[in-house]
Design goal:
Layout: H1 2-17, E1 18-19, H2 22-25, E2 42-44, H3 49-62, E3 66-69, E4 88-91, E5 98-102, E6 107-111, H4 116-125, E7 128-129, H5 142-147, H6 155-158, H7 161-164, E8 165-171, E9 177-180, H8 193-197, E10 206-213, E11 215-216, E12 220-228, H9 231-245, E13 249-256, H10 257-266, E14 280-288, H11 291-310, E15 316-319, H12 323-334, H13 336-343, E16 346-352, H14 358-372, E17 377-383, E18 388-394, H15 401-422, H16 438-444, H17 447-460
Parallel strand pairs: 2-4, 3-4
Antiparallel strand pairs: 1-2, 5-6, 6-10, 7-11, 8-9, 8-10, 12-14, 12-15, 13-14, 16-18, 17-18
Helix pairs in contact: 1-3, 9-11, 10-13
The structure holds flavin-adenine dinucleotide.
Flavin-adenine dinucleotide binds next to strand 3, helix 5 and strand 10.
């Protein structure tokens, strides 16, 4: 059966589009975090929607399961095949054309395999920008970003992929092409199929292209750093920034002193932004898209920090005096994950609770976990304004990684997830469910919600060929 399929697929895709060579496939069989390694029947790399559609039709005919993969930068193992060797690894990376950028409508239409950084550069050439960025931007593709509903540090102002995808084109399980590319501001023709596909992690359809919203390029920015004594005060600072800077507020990230210390140890050239240690730090960015507003940004920033100091929300603050200093402040934020990783094994959770509850959640849960698991340290950092923090629990010193992760680490994750659910939150705010959290989703999610998700999956992919064993 698989020989017949491979023969037909080779005829359809040619030597560039299909390989069963272990050396060519192997780099794509392990996920970015190195947690999972699988095997694949072959790796297919169609070059167009038409080829993709005909390939999926073949898979449907031969009942070959498909694992879609973009840049393989996902954090939940969703793009890694299992080790049966029966699944086809479907790379979208050859579908990498930007079909067009329309300055008048401020939209970009591109193939699923376009890399985020390439999209940024193409938009920039039209004096526009795609306002979503993340650490994996050199690998992550438009299709993967849509399939995981990716976020990042600009969600506060521009939203996650759900808000930025205006249209999609997708190949469904039987090979049919669903063309929803034309952006319509108002459209009430029943179910919102585009939103159903966003965040579906390759389990309902294969994204082949998308129309994305662009925004004007930045005329100026101001980046600030403030030290504060509690997360409640950081949250009050955020509300103040939203009141005083309104539309200019582009980013608001928080980190504890522990994370700053970890980065200072990790990056030899990094310097502490403030003279003293503080329980919490906030990184704030204001941007303007016109030169008049850009000229007023420094005054706006001073006024914001002055008011915050006066109200006792912050103890100290600094404003980056140059682009170089601004980049150095952002580098600290972007280096937290690798710096924490360098300390030793840690269980990493990507959680959200209702925005206004986040400070109380962190204050209640961090000491409880550290007490229940002596020697561990719980560290939260990230997108306070989105009610989403990266919640890492670092192992006690001297633990062997895989043994700790499989034992205490697993129990700690279950406890973190239980607490998140008890606080009305989500066990996946950014990275998706994939393979990593599938069982936890089934354990913790409302059965009614799981039943609806399974019914949708069954209706759209009755043979269970699209990314089986992931998400639901
Ligand atoms: P892959 O890893 O290849 O796939 C991810 C999932 O999408 C899989 O389930 C796969 O089957 C499916 N998929 C891929 N392409 C398609 C397609 N065309 N059609 C259907 N399904 C498809 N994520 C955030 O949200 N916020 C962050 O701040 C963030 N920071 C990161 C920092 C670093 C350093 C790294 C490495 C990753 C980070 N990520 C972040 C995670 C990652 O970049 C995103 O999940 C991204 O969306 C994955 O894109 P990808 O093309 O690499 O997808």
């Amino acid at each position: 059966m698989s020989d017949a399929f491979l023969k037909d697929a080779a005829r359809l895709l040619g030597p560039k589009g299909l390989t069963a060579e272990p050396a060519e496939i192997e780099p794509w069989l392990t996920d970015w975090r190195g947690r999972y390694t699988g095997r694949a029947l072959a790796m297919a790399s169609p070059a167009s929607t038409d080829e993709l559609s005909r390939l999926v039709r073949l898979c449907h005919q031969h009942r070959v399961p498909i694992v879609p993969q973009g840049g393989n930068s996902g954090m939940s193992g969703g793009a890694t095949p299992f080790d049966s060797g029966r699944e086809l690894l479907l790379s979208l990376r050859r579908m990498n054309q930007i079909r067009g950028i329309d300055s008048a409508s401020r939209t970009a239409t591109c193939d699923a395999g376009v890399i985020l950084q390439v999209l940024h550069e193409a938009a920039e050439a039209h004096h526009l920008r795609f306002p979503l960025s993340l650490g994996g931007k050199g690998s992550a593709t438009v299709g993967g970003l849509i399939a995981t509903n990716a976020g990042g540090t600009q969600v506060l102002r521009h939203g996650s992929m759900r808000a930025l995808v205006l249209g999609v084109e997708a190949v469904m399980a039987d090979g049919s092409v669903l063309d929803l590319l034309t952006p319509l501001k108002k459209d009430n023709r029943g179910f919102d199929l585009k939103q159903l596909l966003i965040g579906s992690e390759g389990t309902l359809g294969i994204i082949s292209a998308a129309t994305l919203a662009l925004v004007p390029t930045i005329a100026g920015r101001v980046v600030m750093w403030a030290g504060t004594s509690s997360l409640h005060e950081a949250r009050s600072l955020l509300l103040l920034a939203q009141d005083m800077a309104a539309d200019q507020l582009e980013g608001f990230e928080v980190l504890p002193q522990h994370s700053l210390d970890a980065v200072l140890d990790y990056l030899p050239d990094a310097r502490a932004p403030l003279a003293d240690a503080h329980e919490w730090h906030a990184l704030i960015e204001l941007v303007a898209t016109d030169s008049q507003t850009a000229a007023r940004l420094p005054e706006m920033a001073e006024s914001l920090l002055g008011t915050a100091l006066h109200r006792g929300l912050i103890a100290d603050a600094t404003i980056a005096a140059s682009e170089d200093q601004a980049n150095r402040l952002w580098l600290i934020r972007e280096s937290i994950s690798p710096a924490e990783r360098a300390i030793g094994p840690a269980m990493q959770h990507d959680i959200s609770v209702p925005v206004e509850r986040m400070p109380a959640f962190v204050e209640a849960v961090v000491p409880r976990l550290e007490a229940d698991w002596p020697g561990t340290r719980a560290v939260c950092f990230g997108h306070l304004g989105d009610g989403n923090v990266h919640f890492h629990v670092i192992a006690p010193p001297g633990q062997e990684r895989s043994a700790w992760e499989a034992g205490d680490g697993k129990a700690i994750s279950a406890q973190v997830h239980d607490l998140v659910v008890a606080w009305g939150g989500s066990i996946s705010a950014e990275h998706g469910i994939g393979r990593l959290k599938r069982d936890e989703l089934a354990r913790l999610e409302d059965p009614a919600r799981i039943a609806v998700m399974r019914a949708v999956k069954q209706a759209l992919d009755p043979q269970g060929l699209l990314n089986p064993g992931k998400l639901v």
